[in-house]
Every structure is written in structure tokens, then in C-alpha cells.
Amino acid sequence: MVRAWTFPLALEAAATEPLFLQIARGISGDVQRGRLRAGDALPGSRTLAAELGVHRNTVLAALRELAAEGWIEAEARTTRVARDLPAPAGRARLPKSGLGFDLTPPPQIAELAPPGWRGLDLAGGLPDPRLIPVDELGRALRRALKARPTLLDYGSPLGEPRLRAALASLLGEVRGLACPPEQLMITSGSLQAVDLAARCLFRPGDRVGVEDPGYPPVWQTLRAAGAELVPLPVDGEGLCVENLEALLPLRAIYLTPHHQFPTTVTLGAARRMRLLELARRHRIALLEDDYDFEFHFEGRPVLPLASGDTAGVVVYMGTLSKILAPGLRLGWVAGPKALVEALGAQRRMGDLHGNRVMEGAVAEFIEDGLLQRHARKMRRIYAERREALLEALDRHLPGPLEVVPTGGGLSLWARTAPGVDPAAWATRAQAAGVLVMPGRRFDFQGRKVPFLRLGFAALAPKEIREAVRRLQEAL
Ligand SMILES: Cc1ncc(COP(=O)(O)O)c(C=O)c1O
Q: Within this chain, do residues 395 and 366 fall inside the same structural domain, yes or no?
């Protein structure tokens, strides 16, 4: 039986080695590599000749050569790999180690949770995977594929038109952003949006402001695009805009104005106006990461900076990672049309385009009103969980932890009392099965800062109470 064996090489008509020898070396090489094993039947000479586009006599000459060298034998009307060959040491495999070239050291990426973590997770601001509407998503996927099998073709680097339209109209309805679909591009999460924007905007050595404390994964992305990062302080009203002028020139500022990461404070109205004005005057791109707009629990959400941008300085980025599921890898970036087109061209070079099938399915999901329904449900559930965490902290840890009051976000930012070492506490908590993040993980210089970040979205109220109890014990 011939397994699905195909000839391994392209023949070179212009080579000095005659064609029949190239064919013979190709076959004996595959025996040595283990792609062909003792006793395997070779395709017939006519088939092989047709496959290789050579005269049959050339193949017959190659087979004679191989038989003379003992690689093959004729059996009945079939030519087989000789059975008395010494068995290869094993099938050829890629070398496990021993790189044959130089590798630039990959960046060290600090993971939030230890790999395979199974305890109570108060660390992330991620949604509860148990609440993701998998049945509805599955149905939307099936419907999209049945109705539009062309989703399996190549597509546009800007994303599925239906999803672009659905998200653009949602941004208008919910976030007060008048965004035509041609000014919005789908990305693989907001991190890719940051990456593409950085690659389009920055020249090596450009100074780029980032919030401090802030979101370290994005710092790495910005640096990889050549940026020199400038930490910008954050206080109870978000990014401190007052002294920005002294730090110019800045090519861009990456910020999370709605729920500042990790403090969750909202950028005040006066600062917003000042920032937009400063950006307009000095031509600074504002990379606005609005990653969890929907999860605002007290008062009305504040509209994005982008909704007040008349000068085209804001690059507005968002994600379905919090509202739906991070593994979908669906986000977007919106801005002036010329920027979106440049981002598309940038994406095409490394990624061609996103997963059209999933984009088509999520477009269905949004068009049917399911995303909005899910968001409403999750806001209610997360509000309960937030309340449960606030109550539990108030009951068990009123002295050691003081929560910074803010209106939204999927985590709390809590100041630790003098004498409490947040990093040591987090380590002991982890040993007791609870994951929390010490503030130093988000400090630009990795300094010890007296804060803990406590995410509540992934745990039910009962689990939250248990986690806080263990946190108290670990103190
Ligand atoms: C500040 C911030 N931006 C963006 C994201 C989401 O990133 P992505 O859309 O790439 O999943 C997160 C998720 O944790 C985040 O905390």
C-alpha cells in the first residue's frame, strides 16, 4: 500500500546532476529520513513520471540506479523499498535543541497567573468563562457558515464588512461615537490594534507617554515598535494632564480614560478637554483603549475621548474580550479613514486578515441583539459580584485595605495600610489558593507601591467571600 507519499523535492532541469539521479537521491533521502519505510510500495513509474513531469524512461533509470544501490526491490509488479534495509533510528523529527542560527532573545513576558492555576482568581479583570453564551455563539457560527460559505475564502485585512457595520452602529448607540463602518477595522483583540497603530505611527526613538501605573503588556508592544516610553503619573482623576506640556515632545500617549488600568478611576471632564486640545496643538496621537466601557456601575458612563475629537487625533480601540470572551480575539480600532487604511495595509503584511468565520458569526450575534442582551445580563451579575467583594473586604479587611472609590471596571484598586507588604501578602495568598496582584506589577519602574488589585468578575459571590476570608488569613 502506498501511503500518501509525495516526491520531496523540486527537480532542477538546469542542475549539473542529471534528472534521473536527482529522482534517485530524492527517494533514497526519504528512506533515510524515515518518510519511506522498509516494504513501502512506491508509486508506479508512469504515475511518478506524470507527477514529476519527466519522461517515464527517466524514472525507470532512477529506479535502476536505486535497485543497483540496494534501496528498492521489485516484488510481483510493485516496486518497494527494500525490506532488509537497516531500520532508521526513528522517524525523522525536528531537532529539539541546537539552533543552527542566532536568535534575538525574545522579550520576557510576565504572566498574570502561574501556568495551570486552579485556585480562586481575584487577579484578572477577565470575564467568568462559565457565563460565556456558548450555545448562542455556536448557533451563530453555524448560521453564518451555512448562509455564507464564502466566509471560508480569503477576505479583507479590515475585517468582515458585516461585523464592521454591526460594531460601528453599536458604538453609535452605546458609546456616543458617530463612526461610519469604513472608519473602523476589526483586529485580533485590542492588543493588535495597539501594535498596528504603533507600527504605523512611530519612528524608532519616538517618545510615547504611558500611564503609570498602567498596563504592562502594552508597554512591551509599544517598545517593540521602537517607542521610548515616558511614564505619566495618574491620580484620583486619571492621567495627570496638567504638567504634560513639560514632557513634550511626545508622538503619542496610550491611555485608558474610562476605567484607568489598574486604578479604574475615570479621567475628569476638564482633563479630557485639556488633553484633546494639547494633542491637537502638538499633533500627539491619543491611543484610547476603551476595553470595558459597558461595565460602569455607578452613575452614567463617561463617553469616550474619541466622541469629543474634532481634530482626528484619537485612535479609538476596543475589544470583545471583556464583554464576550477573550479567546475570540476580536477587537477593533476606529479613527480617520486614512489611518484605518494604513492599519489595514500594515496588518496585511503579517496577518493577512482575521478569522472571517468567527467575525461572521459574531456579526450575526450582534445583529440579533444578543451581544447587548448578554452585556446587560453581565452588568447585573458583575454589579452583584462587585458588591459582594466590597462587602467582604469591609467585613474582613477594613483596616489593612482601603478601596479607592470609582464608578466601574471589573476590578478594585485598594490601598494597603502602612506596615503591610502587598507583594509578600500576595505570595502568601497564592499559597492559600487565592490569586491577587500586588501594585508593583503595574508600576512603570516595578517599585513597591502600597496597593492590591482585586478582580471580581470571574468568581461567584460565594467564591469571592471565600477568597477574601483566605486573604485575611494570609495577612
Ligand atoms: C487595559 C486593557 N486593555 C485591553 C485588554 C484586552 O486586550 P485584548 O483585546 O487584546 O484581549 C485588557 C484585558 O485584560 C486590558 O486590561
A: no
Contacts of 204 (CB under 8 A, 6+ apart): 226
Contact of 299 with 167, CB cutoff 8 Å: no
| Residue 18 grid coordinates | 542529471
- Which atom of ligand 1 is nearest the CA belonging to 329? 11
In the chain, the percentage of residues whose pLDDT exceeds 70 is 97
Beta strand 434-435 with 120-121: parallel, antiparallel or unpaired?
A: parallel
Is 316 in the same domain as 388?
no
Looking up cell 531537532 gives 95
Q: Are 10 and 26 in contact (CB under 8 A)?
A: no
CATH code, domain with 42: 1.10.10.10
Average of pLDDT values for 389-393?
97
CA 261 – ligand 1 centroid, Å: 9
What is the CATH classification number for the domain harbouring 353? 3.40.640.10
Same domain, 28 and 146: no
The tens digit of pLDDT for each residue in 173-187 reads 999 999 999 999 999
Let me know whether 38 and 175 are in one domain.
no
Residue 414's nearest CA partner among 396, 424, 401 is 401
Domain that holds residue 49: 19-81
Task: Residue 290: name the closest of 174, 379, 380, 404 by CA.
Answer: 174
Instruction: State the CB neighbour count (10 A cutoff) for residue 470.
Output: 20
Beta bridge partners of 73: 80
Can you say how many angstroms the Cα of residue 66 is from the centroid of all Cα atoms in its chain?
A: 51
- Does one domain contain both 357 and 383? no
Mean pLDDT of 407-423: 96
Closest ligand 1 atom, residue 331 Cα: 9
The terminus-to-terminus CA distance of the chain in angstroms comes to 68
Instruction: Please tell me the pTM assigned to this model.
Output: 0.82
Question: Would you say 379 and 389 are in contact if contact means Cβ atoms under 8 Å apart?
Answer: no
Cell of 290: 476603551
Atom of ligand 1 nearest to the CA of 321: 11
Ligand 1 neighbourhood includes 416 CB (under 6 angstroms): no
Longest dimension (CA), the chain: 90
What pLDDT digit, counting tens, does each position of 55-106 carry? 999 999 999 999 888 899 988 888 999 988 765 555 556 777 778 888 888 8
Q: Using one digit for the tens of pLDDT, what is the confidence trace for 278-327?
A: 999 999 999 999 999 999 999 888 899 999 999 999 999 999 999 999 99
